[in-house]
Amino acid sequence: MIYLKGHLARPLDAVLSAPSRLAVLRELAQARAPLSGRAVARLARINHQGAAVALAGLERLGLVERRPAGRSDQWRLDRRRWLVAEVLAPMFERESEHADGVADAIKGELRGKAAAVLLGGAAAKGRLEPGKSLELVLVEGSRGRRAIGEAARVLAVVLKEKWAIPLDVRVLSRREALRAVAVEDLWELLPVEGPPSYFATGTSVQR
């Protein structure tokens, strides 16, 4: 029996060895047409040099294809490769469902109880780190504070068990919400029963 080791046994070590490679692969997996190096860098939110290094490394691994196109090269994911077709592409497809799943859980638990749901803190800025709490501000609906509190407790369990996301909730009455002031780290996220007219995008509550 032949025991394969190194890259033959663990090709993902090289693929996922740098965040820039993962960012580049993610954007190429979602692209419907080949992308220039500059487009890849912009979409992946990394500098042009970092994108070039990542693309070169992925090309050596045989995971991306480069084709000359005028003054710049065009890049695409090589979907003929086993690692792309069987591992990476399905992984990115499932990853794209993550945010939708979290949003559906929030709506499912709070529908009919909260008049409005707002996203706060680091998550509102797109900077929520693993293990940190997802901050939600809930505006009390017609069923009262008790109903929304119970729903929030159930939601906290669901988010923690299924997505490992801790939840931090603040509940406001409609009167408290009317005294909302504009700040930068909070905005309307999910109008579970139609947003109240006094909540415009970019409006939030005072902490």
> What's the total number of strands?
7
Mind telling me which CATH architecture of the largest domain this is?
2-Layer Sandwich
**Domains (count):** 2
The CATH superfamily title of the largest domain: Beta Polymerase, domain 2
How many helix segments? 9
Give the class-level CATH name of the largest domain: Alpha Beta
**Using only CA atoms, what is the Rg?**
22 Å
Query: Shape from CA axes?
Result: elongated
Beta-strand percentage range: 15-25%
Helix percent band: 40-55%
**Strands side by side in the biggest sheet:** 6-5-4-7
Secondary-structure element order, as H and E? HHEHHEEHHEHEHEHE
Give the overall average pLDDT. 84
Biggest pleated sheet: 4 strands, mixed
Low-pLDDT regions: 181-185, 193-207
Short description:
This protein is an alpha+beta fold. It contains nine helices and seven strands; from the N terminus they run ααβααββααβαβαβαβ.
Provide the descriptors you would attach to this structure in a database record.
three-stranded antiparallel beta sheet, 207 residues, disordered C terminus, 9 helices, elongated, four-stranded mixed beta sheet, Arc Repressor Mutant, subunit A, alpha+beta, single chain, 2 domains, Beta Polymerase, domain 2
